[in-house]
Design goal:
The structure is a single chain. The chain has about 60 residues and is an all-alpha fold. It contains two helices and no strands. It is elongated.
């Protein structure tokens, strides 16, 4: 219980929240880059040009 009491002190929790936010943001950014790359690779495998812009013309 002594460790928990030390961790729950305001001077420890404040920096931990910031640290977790920064690390979490970096992980989310890395995951987004990874999945965008995977999607691009799958388009190439399917024979679709991933750089071609799709123009949606409803008329």
């Amino acid at each position: 219980m002594d460790i928990l009491e030390k961790l729950l002190r305001p001077e420890v929790i404040g920096p931990m929240i910031g640290l977790v936010a920064v690390i979490g943001g970096c992980c989310i950014g890395a995951a987004k880059l990874y999945f965008n790359h995977q999607e691009r690779i799958e388009k190439i495998k399917a024979g679709i040009d991933p750089d071609k812009k799709i123009i949606n013309n409803p008329s």
